[in-house]
Amino acid sequence: MDKKKVNRDIFKMVLPIIIENVLQMSAGLVTTAMIGRLLADDISAQGIGNRITNTFWALFKGVGIGATVIVALRYGQQKFHLCRRTIEQVYITALPAAFGCVVLTLIFMDPILHLFTQDAALLQAAFRFARIAIFAVPFMALSSVNAAAFNGHGNTKTPMYLAFLMNGVNIVLGYLLIFGPGPLPALGLVGAAVSTVVSWMTGALTGLALLYARHGYFGHEHHNQPFFSLDKPILKEVYKTGVPAACENVFWQLSAIVLSNVILGYGSAAFAAYNLGLQAEMICEMPGIGFVTASTSLAARAIGMGDDQLYRAYFKQMRKFSFFTGLAASVALFTFAGGFMTLLTDKPEIQAIGRVYVFIMGFAQIPQDLAKVYNGTIRSAGYRNVPMIISFVGIWCVRVPISVVFGKLLGWDISVVWIAIALDQIVRILLSMGIFQKKRVIDRVTQGSPAQPQKA
Predict the structure, then answer these.
(1) How many beta carbons lie within 10 A of that of residue 331, not counting itself?
(2) How far apart are CA 63 and CA 94, in angstroms?
(3) pLDDT per residue as tens digits for the range 406-426
(4) What is the mean pLDDT of the chain?
(5) Other CB atoms closer than 10 Å to residue 452's CB: what's the count?
(6) What pLDDT, on a 0 to 100 scale, did the predictor assign at position 456?
(7) What radius of gyration do the chain's Cα atoms show?
(8) Mean pLDDT: which of 41-45, 134-138, 165-169 is highest?
(9) Lowest-pLDDT choice from 14-23, 214-223, 320-329
(10) Global confidence as pTM
């Protein structure tokens, strides 16, 4: 196998994803920095609202992973009509679910917010943000399915361009609505929520238009089936892979709600530092994020082609690259912990707490990036539930118990919560590597697997 070709395939997919996520994070960073100039309660309120919307985003992102795997398999088999059919089946099932999530959240907004805090002022601020931001969820679902269509075809450039558009809208509109320069009213948190919804709407509808455009993928992938007719075999394939991936993502989001409750016990400044520290960590994590989609899509494509040599080469090269991206992220977090927090907020108390978080997260970057490659390959090999189980063990047997016991119950220093988060990542990569070896995932193409998706 020509390593240059393998590397070219990997970077052709990974680099646009990295740029896409850098753009998304840059917009989030700018918005967070703008909110960071407001009160600590405003920063915390945005964090609470984002926890709610990101839980749903994680759910539909998992469904998108399931769609990506199936589309990539069909693409490798050159069954192009089934690529379009697969995505359309997800549209007609995921979007009604997304609207249902919005309705239920609005109905139960008060008890949901009380899961985070009992502080009356913070609850009021969080309500102002969340009641608007929740309307971004249907567009998050649509964006996730659109991205699955592009990524499954091996096209990661279009999602990158869409991210550029979305984030441009978010930054410009966010600035105008948050601060209200000139004659415009300063809406603060409400302005941040409105800009979030409008940016997601812009990206989702533009992506949909590109898929169905005359020269888009769906413009020539005809299947002669009614759009609204349900295809149970396809839906079964997608959701058998997508539901475990969604559960894996939701585990993290639900744990974040528990951790938010623990951290809020240390005060609004601690929670604000946590949310700002997450932004700093995610900046450094950007290079590694591309390996989630790349490992899933490229492994599935090689399996669909029945090419064992290509399958092995993709895994080995991505494992090597993910190690070095994790190493670079660790060095950046160790070295610039203080600089990141100074950039994000001008509050000294928040900066001090956030610096400790950012430094400790430096220890988690290599395990975190390696796990992306291992779990993406395991999932594409047909072991759909394994990454979900690993995630459950790391989060609910390590991260949450340590944080609750030593943070909330025993009242240790908040750094014990940061250590629990880093330890979770280390446990997960050890489990992933052990299962990868035990199940001989590297031999997937030559030996087959009882978990192999059906070939439509």
Answers:
(1) 13
(2) 8
(3) 988 998 998 999 999 999 999
(4) 86
(5) 12
(6) 35
(7) 21
(8) 134-138
(9) 14-23
(10) 0.74
The answer on pLDDT for 287 being more than 80 is no
Q: How confident is the model at residue 323 (pLDDT cuts 50, 70, 90)?
A: very high
| Residue 275 pLDDT > 80 | no
240's tokens: 């058998």
Give the chain's length: 456
Residue 358's nearest CA partner among 271, 417, 274 is 274
Which of 194-203, 291-300, 396-405 comes out lowest in average pLDDT?
Answer: 291-300
Residue keyed to tokens 């502080």: 119
Q: What's the chain look like in SS3?
A: CCHHHHHHHHHHHHHHHHHHHHHHHHHHHHHHHHHCCCCHHHHHHHHHHHHHHHHHHHHHHHHHHHHHHHHHHHHHCCCHHHHHHHHHHHHHHHHHHHHHHHHHHHHCHHHHHHCCCCCHHHHHHHHHHHHHHHHHHHHHHHHHHHHHHHHHCCCCHHHHHHHHHHHHHHHHHHHHHHHCCCCCCCCCHHHHHHHHHHHHHHHHHHHHHHHHCCCCHHHCCCCCCCCCCCCHHHHHHHHHHHHHHHHHHHHHHHHHHHHHHHHHCCCHHHHHHHHHHHHHHHHHHHHHHHHHHHHHHHHHHHHHHCCHHHHHHHHHHHHHHHHHHHHHHHHHHHHHHHHHHHHHCCCHHHHHHHHHHHHHHHHHHHHHHHHHHHHHHHHHCCCCCHHHHHHHHHHHHHHHHHHHHHHHHCCCCCHHHHHHHHHHHHHHHHHHHHHHHHCCHHHHHHHCCCCCCCCC
Determine the angle formed by the axes of helices 189-212 and 120-133, rounding to 10 degrees: 20
Q: Using CA of residue 354, residue 356, residue 357, residue 361, what is the dihedral sign? A: positive
* 414, 266 contact by CB (below 8 A): yes
360: phi then psi, degrees, rounded to nearest 5: -65, -35
